[in-house]
Amino acid sequence: MTIKQFIAWLKIKAPGVSFFNSCIDKNLAQCVGVYARKNGPAQPQAVGGRSSYGIKAITLLVHWTTNADTCEIKANEILELFRTAGTSETIGTTTGYFLAPNDPIDVGTDDAGIFEKTFDVNLYYRK
Questions:
Q1: Which long-range contacts (CB under 8 A, 24 or more apart) does 20-26 make?
Q2: Domains of the chain by range and CATH?
């Protein structure tokens, strides 16, 4: 499972939103950065063989306008995509489901005054 495959799924679910792999474009007033997280859940271990599924730990950074309310609304809209997704979403060439353990957290503004919120998603996928 790659961030690129995850972003392709996101673009279908949220058309018109600019998603970036492991960065954001600070020249844009509205975009979302998608980052692989180091501190996600432990990868499943199978006894005597390879596990049939993996976990991709992801953090999203919603970089959205100079209005705090607008940023919060967009972050909640994107979070809701994961909370309402089915248990068998097609992501890339495999299927999986999402757990979003926390609500968006305010991380303030950047140097240009653009508000930012972040939240984590765990993608459980078939290998």
A1: 24/61, 24/63, 26/63, 26/110, 26/111, 26/112, 26/114
A2: 3-126 (3.30.2000.10)
